[in-house]
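dumping these here so i dont lose them again. two proteins, back to back, each one seq then structure tokens. dont judge the mess
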Amino acid sequence: MLSLKRVQDADLLRQLLELVKQSRGVEAEVVAHIGEVELRRLYAQEACSSMFEYCRRILGMRIVTARAGQLRRTAAELEVTTFGVSC
């Protein structure tokens, strides 16, 4: 990990903002992949009874992260069902 002690304040703030933006993009991709794996029930290939179990046991996610993925997937499904939005 690089040392941040010598980074100027404005640069540090700019870099942090950019990292958060990148993180959100990656998080969105992870949630999309979780949703597709769940839809295809691919977690069963790893002897998991649910996507939550797969996230915890195989992916090593914390409970909060695994639950958040489930909630986001459910929200996306509700949006499609309620508003007819296709992903």
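---- next one ----
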Amino acid sequence: MNKTELIEATAAEADISKAAAGRALDAILGAIVKAVAKGDSVTLIGFGAFKSSKRAARTGRNPQTGKELKIAATTVPRFTAALVSRPQLRVRKLPRGNNDLKSQA
């Protein structure tokens, strides 16, 4: 699902216009990004938590030349799914050679 599809689903579920749903989604995402950028965490009970995490400096390799290079330390965003939502988010593996989801339902 992409952003447009999420806006359409939200508008239909909440019985509001797509424009209003789009503004609401942008406001929510903006608030999450600002909070995580400041170092705060955002927890949505039953869904999950967004937070920032420090990644240590490390040594990597250029895949074309094999030459080692230093990768600087950085801060990255992280999302952790709530325990309640994890079973709902699991994707069932299909048997080999069968790519048809409908036949597995």
